[in-house]
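Hey,

Quick one before I head out. I ran the complex with oxa(dethia)-CoA overnight. Inputs first:
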Amino acid sequence: MSLVGSGSAIPAQIVTNDQLSLLVDTNDEWVRTRTGIRERRIIGPDESLADLCSDASKSALEMANWDASNVDMILIATSTPDDLFGLAPKVQAKLGAANAVAFDLTAACSGFLFAFITAAQFLQNGSFKRVLIIGADQLSGWMDWSDRRSCVLFGDGAGAIALEAIDQTEDALIGFKMKSDGSRGDCLNLPQTRNFVPLVGSHLNQKGGFSNIQMNGQEVYKFAVREVPALLEKVLNNCEISPESLDWLLLHQANQRILNAVADRFAIPQQKVLTNLANYGNTSAATIPLMLDEAVRDGRVEKGNLIASSGFGAGLSWGVALFRWHGPS
Ligand code: UT7
């Protein structure tokens, strides 16, 4: 299995920290120093998450030099689909990828990493030849814009990676681990509202709907700086790879302080830590492919580079993947 193309798409609307200070009691200095974020993108009325997914996918298809009709599977990691029955089939139709099975996978901020590892299984076992994986979220729609502890963190975006089955001896996915702990899920969730309305006779019916994102930031922070290094260490040890031989650390873009803490733990220099938090904030399932695409296109990530990646967040869920970027052949 090889990574042969990448693409990304972001909404046009930019919301700066200064603008958020008009909504809640915050300021640019606090947000920058505590998180590393300067601005984020928010989907506006002329855009949709399906549009972003489709644009990101088209760029990835172009880089991979694939025709959409040759894609076997489209897997979208998202917690905020345009349609609860599935975002991926809409994107399949937009792309004209008529031969691809298309479905969504939900694992919040770990979603892209989980989708990558899931897709790799189909490619490695010979079921599929070409798979498009997408990470996309529109958390702006589920934000409590009066809660300064959470609304400054998130933004919208989408990223896509084209994965191809190969016969070479070294598979691009060198090692991985995935973890979940639902017993700690309460510190970050986006729950259904429990609004029961009369149906017929004495029967009640639960009206569909969701509340806003609820987050205990400190607990999530502690979870991330404890669990991500522990899992990364296990994967590195299993693969007999030393931290020094990594070309890049590509973490879920949640908070610059989390990225720094993980890098410090392995003595990975700042120049090897990929970060674009300042421009986009936390785009949930989109952060990893958005960052990878940016670094591939500006030439930082080169063919053969070894990348350690980790997604972590609601669930709680977290995962690590060690992989190489092969790029288009
Ligand atoms: O994908 C995973 C998604 N979630 C995360 O990644 C969240 C991880 N957690 C974090 O990134 C950090 O915990 C936060 C950025 C959310 C908060 O940073 P912190 O350094 O943990 O701040 P804190 O919650 O300890 O709050 C410190 C102070 C508090 O004031 P008092 O009680 O000390 O007077 C907060 O009320 O900062 C205050 N505060 C703010 N002040 C200005 C919290 N949010 C803001 C804000 N602007 N936006």
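The CA atoms of residues 26 and 175 lie 41 Å apart.

Talk tomorrow,
K.
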